[in-house]
Design goal:
about 30% helix; alpha+beta; single chain; four-stranded antiparallel beta sheet
Length: about 100
Amino acid sequence: MSIAYLVGFRLRDGQRERFLDLLTAVMDAMRHEATYRAATLHADPDDPTRFLLHEIWADHDDVVNVQLHRPYRRAWHAALPELLREERRIEVWRPVEP
């Protein structure tokens, strides 16, 4: 069964371009992973510092134990304290199959 992640970001002023550059590189790389299903980045139309990332993966354990530790994520993870004005809000969701 797939798993969905909703990740909310609030950026520091002046960090939008760097945030997008780093995240785009991660998203381009993760699209080649076997357990990747989909990802969409959403921007708040009223606040240029707010973003929501919606990711779908095949396996939660793979995401936690393998995907989050991929080398292509290092620069992204290292930059987060400089990019974000507050901690990411991460929600985990599972599809309901009636």
